[in-house]
Amino acid sequence: MRIVISGEIDLEPGARERALTGARELIQAALAEKGCVHYAWTADINRPGRVHVFEEWESEPDLAAHLAGKPYQGMLAHLSGCGLIGAVTRKYRVDHVEPVYDPEGRPRADFFTG
Q: What is the pLDDT of residues 42-96, one digit of tens each?
């Protein structure tokens, strides 16, 4: 079952760009790990010190290996030097995935492919 990680990292004002730039190699390393489908950090345009985290993993064992691995440990060390104020991350088990838009191009809130 796929796992999605969603989170926010809050940094001291002015530290966000340094955090994003310095994380580039660690993000690339995470993307190369077995089972990593998506791994992205993005700047929040409404909050100057906030970074959004989005990850998608193919399985729980893949996520467990990531959390025990060098890219994740490196990320923790990197953030500790970037004025980390706080972070909230959540994980979700995904049991069904389908497009937002149906074959006619209409956005749908319901799950229509069954």
A: 999 999 999 999 999 999 999 999 999 999 999 999 999 999 999 999 999 999 9
pLDDT surpasses 90 at 113:
no
* Of 82, 84, 71, 87, residue with least CA distance to 21: 82
Q: What is the structure's pLDDT at 25?
A: 96
Instruction: Go through the domains of the chain in sequence order and give each one's CATH number.
Output: 2-94 (3.30.70.100)
- Inter-residue contact 8 to 50 (CB < 8 Å): yes
Of 2, 1, 3, 23, nearest to 11 by C-alpha is 23
Residues 16 and 78 sit within 8 Å (Cβ to Cβ): no
Whole-number CA gyration radius for the chain? 16
Convert 4-42 to b/e letters by CB count within 10 Å (16 or more is b). Answer: bbeeebbbeeebbeebbeebeebbebbeebebbeebebe
Phi, psi (rounded to 5 degrees) for 15? -95, -10
